[in-house]
Design brief:
This protein is α+β, with helices and mostly antiparallel strands and about 80 residues long. It has a single domain (about 5-80), classed as SH3 type barrels (Roll), CATH 2.30.30.140. It contains one helix and five strands, in the order E-E-E-E-E-H. The protein has a five-stranded antiparallel β-sheet, with helices on one face. The longest helix has 21 residues, at about 60-80. The chain starts with a strand and ends with a helix.
Length: about 80
């Protein structure tokens, strides 16, 4: 089983280097990811990220629902650890 985290594409590396990279925001955490599997990705779109690679595009509603589910799970875990 793998876990893919939604992220909003904030910046594209347009330098023409390989691999193609982008910066994504996943619920306030920004990271650099490889976008080679999604050549037509644009700033503002949402992607699912696994081990530093954008695997597929998803719509904004789905991305926000998934991020909210992660926040709820984090809250439950934090409460259990108190």
């Amino acid at each position: 089983m793998c876990l893919a985290i939604p992220g909003r594409v904030e910046k594209l590396d347009e330098a023409g280097k390989f691999p193609r990279m982008a910066e994504v925001d996943s619920g306030g955490i920004k990271r650099s990811i490889c976008i080679d599997f999604l050549p037509d990705i644009k700033i503002g779109e949402y992607v699912l990220v696994h081990v530093g690679y954008a695997l597929e595009k998803i719509n904004e509603k789905e991305a926000k629902e998934q991020l909210e589910s992660f926040r709820k799970a984090e809250d439950i875990i934090a409460e259990k650890l108190k």
